[in-house]
Design brief:
Largest sheet: none
Number of helices: 7
Shape: globular
CATH topology of the largest domain: Rna Polymerase Sigma Factor, Chain: A
Distance between the termini: 60 Å
Number of strands: 0
Order of helices and strands: HHHHHHH
CATH superfamily of the largest domain: RNA polymerase sigma factor, region 2, helix turn helix motif
Strand content: under 5%
Length: about 170
């Protein structure tokens, strides 16, 4: 694919992947402005490295590998620990107070279950359910095979389910 074709591909994918990358960044950093800046930086780096993209079908995984590196670089420079998924802590604005309380309790339980996972398992869960990536794209982003991603995801969800069920039983 020539340079112009890759640029057009980038423009097409920008609209599709911007909400996903932004949501992913929101999960990884505490502040909305920082999440937006990091998402913009990820797309800027992707655009500047567009010539390195060999397979247009690999765009999503390639972009999220860049996004993961941007977050890692951000925290390396800040020398902070990665926070828990701060997006899970935001109540939905249009829900009644009773629903928000129930949601808050569910979020707390989910955070506890996520905390039992390894960093790699949490990352796969984030990319799958919060960024909406396929196992194949996650594999590309993390340097794993799609089948391996599926196995890790299955085991991570099984661990989370066990933790949540243990909390429910007396």
């Amino acid at each position: 694919m020539d340079r112009r074709g890759k640029y057009e591909l980038f423009v097409q994918h920008y609209a599709v992947y911007l909400p996903r990358v932004l949501n992913y960044m929101r999960l990884r950093v505490d502040e909305e402005a920082v999440a937006q800046d990091l998402a913009a930086l990820a797309f800027e780096r992707a655009l500047s490295r567009l010539s390195m993209l060999r397979d247009e079908d690999a765009f999503g995984g390639w972009l999220f590998r860049i996004a993961r590196n941007v977050v890692a670089s951000y925290y390396r420079h800040r020398r902070r620990d990665l926070p828990l998924e701060s997006a899970l802590n935001c109540p939905a604005p249009n829900l009644p107070v009773e629903s928000q309380i129930v949601n808050s309790e569910e979020v707390t339980r989910m955070r506890g279950a996520l905390a039992t996972l390894s960093e790699r398992e949490r990352e796969i869960v984030r990319l799958r359910f919060f960024a909406g990536l396929t196992n194949r794209s996650i594999g590309r982003a993390m340097g794993l095979r799609a089948g391996n991603v599926g196995v890790i995801l299955f085991r991570a969800l099984r661990k989370m389910r066990a933790v949540l069920e243990a909390e429910e039983s007396p």
